[in-house]
Amino acid sequence: MANQGLGAPPCYNLRIAPRRARTPRNPMDPQYQPKSLEPAVQKAWEDGKAFAAPDASDKPKYYDVGMLPYPSGKLHMGHVRNYSINDALAHYLRMKGFNVLQPMGWDAFGLPAENAAMANGVPPAKWTWDNIAYMKKQLRSLGFSIDWSREVATCSPDYYRWNQWLFLRMREKGIAYRRTGTVNWDPVDQTVLANEQVIDGKGWRTGATVEKREIPMWYLRISQYADELVDALDGLGWPEQVKQMQRNWIGRSHGVAFTLPYAPATAARMGDSGGPRPDGAGPVGLKVYTTRADTIMGITFAAVAAEHPLAAEAAKGNPALAAFIEECKKGGVMEADLATMEKKGMPTGLHVLHPFTKEPVEVWVGNYVLMGYGEGAVMAVPGHDERDFAFAKKYGLAIKPVIDVGGQPYSTDAWQPWYEQAGTCVNSGKYDGLDQQAAIDAVAADLAAMGLGAKRKQFRLRDWGISRQRYWGTPIPMILCPACGDVPVPDGELPVVLPEDLVPDGSGNPLAKSKAFLECRCPECGGAARRETDTMDTFVDSSWYFMRYTCPGAQAMVDARADYWMPMDQYIGGIEHAILHLLYARFWTKVMRDMGLVKFDEPFRNLLTQGMVLNHIFSRRTAKGGIEYFAPEEIEAKADAEGRVTGATLKADGSAVEYNGIGTMSKSKRNGVDPQDLIDRYGADTARLYVMFASPPTDTILWSDSSVEGSHRFLRRLWKLVHDHLAAGGPVAARAAGELARPLKDLRYKLHRTIDKVGDDYGRRLQFNTAIAAVMELLNALGEARDDTPAGRAVAQEVLESAVLLLSPIVPHIATALWAELRPGTRLVDQPWPAVDASALVQETVELVVQVNGKLRGHITVPAAASKEEIEKIALASEAAVKFMEGRPAKKVVVVPGRLVNIVV
RNA sequence: GCCCGGGUGGCGAAACUGGUAAACGCAGCGGGCUUAAAACCCGCAGCCGCGAGGCUUGUCGGUUCGAUCCCGACCCCGGGCACCA
After folding, report:
1. Which of A82, A703, A771, A886 could make an SS bond with A761 (beta carbons 3.0 to 4.6 A apart)?
2. Is residue A520 within 8 Å of residue A479, measured between CB atoms?
3. How far apart, in whole angstroms, are the C-alpha atoms of residue A661 and residue A666?
4. Given this model, what pLDDT does residue A278 score?
5. What is the ipTM, given to two decimal places?
């Protein structure tokens, strides 16, 4: 408008729409318009198949996978965070010359689909496939460099047939087997409940008190691989934290298993003499396992789980005990609940004998003894085991200290953490004075000599129960024949296809009511038979999907292409999967290896566990006693001065709701944040930049959308810097190495330091927030060093090209557009990662900090090559040193080259 | 309860191997540009103190010339605990 009226009658000017000067300019838009720019860039990638990964290449391969999403309906911020990290690495490694594969798929079986079906009557299959379609659109709009030709949905028969096939192979090898297991039972709905569906010991829909129930289930013998699963952790490029969690989970311990012989009356009751068996099968009595055999002289009672056979025997003719055992069946099976329960018990009236003193020891039933670990029975040493101690205090049982820890005084008044530390045996007869290991060895040897026991390696890890009494999962390919028993479905009849039109109603598995599915012929005798209606745990689905990505359409479970891509180079997903999913997938891989299907031992070479994206959780009880959740945006929350939420009401009607603290974003708790608003308002690049800049990937973040604006502002600034540079004379050749005057030399120093740092952040540290900050600093420095001379413009060109390349893994759309303008005729996707110019990093002087007694007092500038002695001299002569030494002599001078000088007076 | 993490300005964070605490950004304040607003640009900014200076990384204690970082105890928050995924 500045040239309004120039050379033309004003009346015409009013009619001409674009009143801006029509100077020849770059065809690109001077405004940053992600809405139009991003789809155009995405289309160009798609048309050029820019991210299709060939199954063979001269380049080294890099297989980069994000844990596949559950198709819950919409993406949430956790997904954006996860796949933005994956994608940044994928782009970075492509630029570093790797053949990169980044695939995507769907963990499509699971409970939420059944819940949705119950809520609105839509079959789980339709709900799931609709969600997949929507979420795929969202992922595409985020512009991730995914090779979509390899997509896997675990609910498609082409995929789950191989779950069934491998299950049958495992059964043949005895890895899959059937036995009873304990489940949560809702007595009102007459159905098995998932742990998640049990809230405070009650069914989530009915509010009824949950009970434990024993039912037959299929198990996979993961315990057979326990040693290898522990030992192989050492060689993995995983966070130490995750390896430690897996080690503790597997819980390999070295202890002693032995028998506490029955006392004579008990032996008679148990129908046995109490002596060694004539058949040599070992002595009869109560079998226990302990890692603390050194405390054996401190036994004051024994305790068994409520489910232990001895408890059942003792309950005969003891109504009080029978009632207690019955009471122990109340409540769910969750370990957290069992462990926090008040310790309760009851004497059985039965006795065993201490193996060495032969004194009678009373056997109790204790609700804190787990049937699933060891022998389901323990020798109780309240003096040195916290749980035994609490139990003994409650029931007035004797507490006998038998370990001395550094002479500290023992008191039975209250438990002290050091009571369970290793020490020296006391009050232990012949073992007195022995240290822990010597005592364990001696006790084990004596028990062995008596034929009562031996050292044993024990694991905490239990076999993997895969049976689920649910519809929306992989059918277990077994047939139950009244004549032949359990009969496997023949390979030729796989897959056993899950019908997709059933709608669960909350009263058990609809497969069990579907004649079409249920009724079949026995493959062995041809008689009428029934199909197994249990389906597989969805962790089966996620135990090998990453192998199937590598060989889409394979006629076997996997083919040779899996050997090219696997093992995976980088796996990224939430820390909540640190144990179960990652352990099961490792186990599954080893089984496949032992069957000759794959050649590697471990599936995931490197692992990044991203922190959770957390949000507030609000809920309230329903009239029936169940629970319902509310999204944070439906809530008006009140907070105290420290920002803690103290109360909350529903915006709609002002009714009170309960605040449940903060927790991970999930569909079931309704506290996920849909990133779609962000994408619609600011574009994918801003959303991606924001999640990457907010914090390091391993940190948890509490959701807040307040600083998104800043990320968008930065991209606009970048856009403007490039366009201002080009407007001042078009693209020029970037600065090559060579001598420059001071401000430009400093700018190039900053540039190449930044290239070095950003590469290190992407490639080694996997920390992106600091990489982005470094580029921000670089662009700030460019803005300050405005220089329109040819040399200045050449350095500016180099800085801008580099900044675009450095940011491109995180914001690929804007980077693609800006690159096309900075280097017309070339494409960003063809560019390598920028190289560091070592000559730009040479400096003549360095600035050091001067400290007196460890406190910062001033700065000195010294030649980069100065020796420690020279630096010390300059520092002592500096103004700051003279002032703060106050004439005192230096007792000591610490020189840290490149950092500081500390003068101690 | 057990196992694994975390706690730094008003907020997100940085400090990578024990060496300048608070880079980079958000929010804020002051100024410029504008008729005005938006956008943009410049500047200020941990706390106390007029200042010199002192204090500050959940709390308390220790090691060290020097501690956000190592050690001990405690408090709080998150993840997992085997049928949520």
Report:
1. A771
2. yes
3. 14
4. 46
5. 0.96
